């Protein structure tokens, strides 16, 4: 009796093609984009989280771990923030170093140079446009030019049109001096002054409070450690005395 074939049973023939064991089709796309790569607001939120984490590790933690006096640390944060709020991106760290040298040599007024240099990076290539636009708007308001305030998108377009992607350092410096300083120089400088004063004042007060709190915690931990060490020494001394008395008892 012959074997029954697929034609006899009426079922379609099964495919002999097998999927290789190493192949991985990946997750099936589920409803509402489940299994799809993250994008949009989620990706922006991830970038913001990474930026805040970077600021914590590069700015806040060195502030808390500083071994200098709280006033010395707070002055460093204040100087760094004040130069960061000036429209001088590119030479702010140099200006901090010059300030440190002059105040240290001429006035014997010292501050943390390392923290100052670090805090100038609050304004950087990613934050320069929002800060500059804030200076520009503040300056136009202070100068009374209420009807001559450019929108943010127009401001960004003018900025990007001034600086090309393949522009060298000297070309970018010349464009900055000719277009930015000549065109927006007065509003930028005038508008940056309130930001410099406010961030310097609040930066000093907040960093001083944070530094004092962590110095107090560090001192409390050190005191507790010394207290435990003294208690262990007393216990050991008491045990030695008790053992000596026991040995001397007839």
UniProtKB/TrEMBL annotation:
Biased composition (Basic and acidic residues) is annotated at 1-22, 221-237
State one Pfam family annotation. Answer: DUF2062
DUF2062 domain ranges (all copies): 60-218
Region Disordered: start-end pairs: 1-43, 219-250
**Organism's domain of life?**
Bacteria
- Keywords for this protein: Membrane, Transmembrane, Transmembrane helix
Regions that span the bilayer:
77-102, 114-135, 156-178, 184-204
Task: Tell me yes or no: is Hydrolase among this UniProt entry's keywords.
Answer: no
Please report the name of this protein according to its UniProt entry: DUF2062 domain-containing protein
Give the species. Answer: Roseospira navarrensis
């Amino acid at each position: 009796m012959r074997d029954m074939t697929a034609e006899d049973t009426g079922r379609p023939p099964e495919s002999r093609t097998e999927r290789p064991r190493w192949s991985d089709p990946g997750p099936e796309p589920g409803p509402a984009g489940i299994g799809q790569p993250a994008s949009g607001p989620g990706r922006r939120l991830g970038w913001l989280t990474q930026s805040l984490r970077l600021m914590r590790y590069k700015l806040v933690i060195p502030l808390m771990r500083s071994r200098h006096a709280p006033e010395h640390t707070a002055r460093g944060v204040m100087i760094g923030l004040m130069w960061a709020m000036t429209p001088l991106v590119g030479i702010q760290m140099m200006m901090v170093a010059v300030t440190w040298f002059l105040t240290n040599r001429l006035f014997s007024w010292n501050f943390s140079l390392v923290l100052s240099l670090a805090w100038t990076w609050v304004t950087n290539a990613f934050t320069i446009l929002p800060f500059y636009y804030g200076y520009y708007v503040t300056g136009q308001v202070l100068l009374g030019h209420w009807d001559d305030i450019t929108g943010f998108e127009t401001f960004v377009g003018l900025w990007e049109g001034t600086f090309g992607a393949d522009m060298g350092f000297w070309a970018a410096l010349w464009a900055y001096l000719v277009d930015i300083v000549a065109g927006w120089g007065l509003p930028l400088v005038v508008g940056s002054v309130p930001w410099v004063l406010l961030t310097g004042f609040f930066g000093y007060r907040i960093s001083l409070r944070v530094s004092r709190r962590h110095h107090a915690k560090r001192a409390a931990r050190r005191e507790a450690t010394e207290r435990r060490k003294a208690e262990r020494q007393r216990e050991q001394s008491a045990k030695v005395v008790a053992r000596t008395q026991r040995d001397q008892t007839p």
